[in-house]
Write a structure and sequence with these properties.
This protein has about 350 residues and is mainly α. It is built from 13 helices and five strands. It has two domains: about 230 residues, HUPs (Rossmann fold); about 90 residues, Tyrosyl-Transfer RNA Synthetase (Orthogonal Bundle). The protein is about 55% helix and about 5% strand. It is globular, with a radius of gyration of 21 Å. Bound molecules: tryptophanyl-5'AMP.
Length: about 350
Amino acid sequence: SRVILSGIQPTGIPHLGNYLGALSNWVKLQKSAAPGDELLFSIVGWHALTLPQNPAALLSARNDMLAVLLAIGIDPGRSIIFHQDHNPHHTELGWILSCITPMGKLRRMTTWKSRLAAARNSGSEDEVDESMLNAGLFTYPVLQAADVLLYKATHVPVGEDQQQHIELTRDLADIFNRTFKGTSPVFPLPIYVNTPSKRILSLKDPTSKMSKSSPDLQSRILLTDTAPQIQSKIRAAVTDSIHGITYDPEGRPGTSNLLTILAACTDRDVTQVSKMYENQGHGTLKRDVAEAVEEFLKDPRAKFERIRHERAYLNEVARRGAARAIEHSERTMVECSYNTTHLGFP
Ligand code: TYM
């Protein structure tokens, strides 16, 4: 049987990239799970602390993210939904793992490299270096590995941007198993589960991914966007002036991104969808994409607007989720503590 685990940062209302790249796959996995499979979905508040946060905004973002998960169909009766920071075992295991993590591996993380590059670009040439960034940004993939290994997860569904972190998680599981050898390995090596629409691109700059941090609000569609907002964002999406529609992610990233979105929202294959538009123009494609996105978001949006205000219910779901999560992780921590303190380094 499988243990499926994934996480998302509580940094505001999710955009279409999060939804199509990750969250919708969580729901699919929940539907197709075998009776013995376990599913855990975590709202990773501690990860959000790597960047400055406004406490009131973070609190409401945590609440909203939980409401989103429920609105899109994650069922608290089937899956364990919980706030990472309700379970202190995450930081505890994170510390143990950081003691076996080679610095070089963390330096090679593209997420770290892009932070570093951004800091270098923004600062004065001389003294700008790593010292401008906090250590949490650097060690954050270790905390992510702890999130996964704490529950002995076997499958981790994430978007493409997180694949490298899952590879690191496998490495750390393996290093731990070899360093603190018990009678049997403590951690299974988790598998990266690719989402069909693994990379949704910015509507304004289709060479980069759709992202929460882009200052251009037109670049992303939020789960809460209304039909007119969706329409105007899709209409303004950057495409190209080539005649006809073809799926060519390299040569026509903007057009291909719209096809990817259309295929994902209507649960079809992208090559099949692109054939249907061969002889059409961008106007028709955009109109159909906007309609498909609206159709796709309509129900979860309405459910979200209702659930987000049911504070007592949300708190109860979070409380139960945390209790169930801790029950699992407690067993792992007992094993880890035994292996680290009794068996020690070789
Ligand atoms: P986060 O919160 O940035 O993103 C949540 C999920 O959304 C996916 N995603 C995308 N997929 C396709 N296209 C996009 N434009 C796009 N933008 C985001 C991400 O790949 C991710 O699956 N470190 C993680 C959260 C995390 C986690 C974990 C995940 C913490 N611990 C343990 C899995 C297991 C993160 O920052 O994701």
